[in-house]
Specification:
This protein is mainly β. Helix content is about 0%, strand content about 50%. The two termini are about 20 Å apart.
Length: about 150
């Protein structure tokens, strides 16, 4: 997947089962700035939810393990991979939130070919029970800066 310097925008539907957290791989440049993020529950029993963006897949999991940084010997906690504060949407009314952001990130996940992954990971923790569908849209300005 190739990303030019133009803003990257996409929309998608994701299925999340409550009450267990679910992890979703989102296409993204290896480094950039997230400038817009929208998440909305569209089906299932309407309830609140929390969404968290990570720059690596492992912390998006549901276990309470510690996670190793790429190439590091020391274990790091999952919040070390978190890109932005958690997105919290409370139950009641329109279960949608449009977050105007300005968060820089760099992928911390190696792809199979030894390059950094072109993805971010979104964890959704929906309140209540049962399957729920979420619509997600986001805009990223790719970074030309080398890290």
């Amino acid at each position: 997947m190739s990303f030019s310097g133009a803003p990257y925008q996409t929309q998608m539907r994701l299925l999340a089962g409550a009450p267990d957290p679910t992890c979703h791989k989102l296409p993204a440049p290896t480094r950039g700035t997230i400038v817009r993020f929208i998440i909305k529950q569209t089906t299932g029993t309407l309830s609140g939810f929390t969404a968290t963006l990570y720059n690596a897949e492992l912390p998006c999991g549901v276990s309470a393990e510690s996670f190793a940084d790429v190439g590091a010997d020391d274990a790091l906690s999952e919040d070390m991979f978190q890109i932005a504060p958690e997105f919290v949407v409370n139950a009641g009314g329109n279960l949608s939130q449009n977050f105007g952001l300005d968060y820089d990130y760099a992928s911390n996940e190696l792809a199979g070919n030894g390059r950094l992954a072109t993805a971010l990971w979104l964890q959704i923790r929906a309140d209540g029970t049962g399957d729920k569908t979420f619509e997600v849209a986001y805009t990223i300005t790719p970074s030309k800066q080398s890290f």
